[in-house]
Amino acid sequence: MKRGLNKVMLIGRVEADPEVRPAPGGRAVASFGLGAPRTWVTPQGESQAETEWFSVVAWGGLAEFCATSLVKGRQVYVEGRLQTRRWEDDQGRIHVRTEVVAQDIIPLAADDEAFGAI
């Protein structure tokens, strides 16, 4: 089988208001951090929690949507693919960055909006 799959689905909170800028060619690009928490119970019965942080990039109309709809702390669903970029800076240092390239972003209800603020 020669098929592959590169798909990421995340639910988390926007770290800071998205940065939106024009890319070369005029197309909009948005970038923001997304924190996705997880919890578990240890074999000793202790609750544990940690947050994994992701860099998210959106292009074109989706970037413009981010500019108008996402703010720091907003819970969102992000679906996309992983992409790793490598580049060399002016001092010859190699940098590597793995990002989620968003294909769909859905804002979720704020905590006080969910289920009529139960």
Estimate the helix proportion, in percent.
under 10%
N to C succession of SSEs: EEEEHEE
**Classification by helices and strands:** mainly beta
Compute the number of strand runs: 6
Major beta-sheet overview? 5 strands, mixed, barrel
In what order do the strands lie side by side in the largest sheet? 1-3-4-6-5
End-to-end Cα distance? 49 Å
Radius of gyration: 17 Å
Proportion of beta-strand residues: over 45%
The stretches of 5 or more residues where confidence is low (pLDDT under 50) are: 114-118
What general outline do the C-alpha atoms trace? globular
Task: Describe this structure as you would to a colleague.
The protein is built from 1 helix and 6 strands, in the order E-E-E-E-H-E-E. Strand 2 and strand 3 form a beta hairpin. Residues 114-118 have low confidence and may be disordered. With 118 residues, the chain is mainly β. It is globular. The chain starts with 7 loop residues before the first strand and ends in an 11-residue tail after the last strand. A 5-stranded mixed barrel has the order 1-3-4-6-5.
List strands and helices in order, with pairings:
Blueprint: E1 8-14, E2 19-22, E3 28-41, E4 47-59, H1 60-69, E5 75-88, E6 94-107
Essential attributes:
five-stranded mixed β-barrel; 1 helix; mainly beta; 118 residues; 6 strands; disordered C terminus
In short:
With 118 residues, this protein is mostly beta strands. The protein is 8% helix and 56% strand.
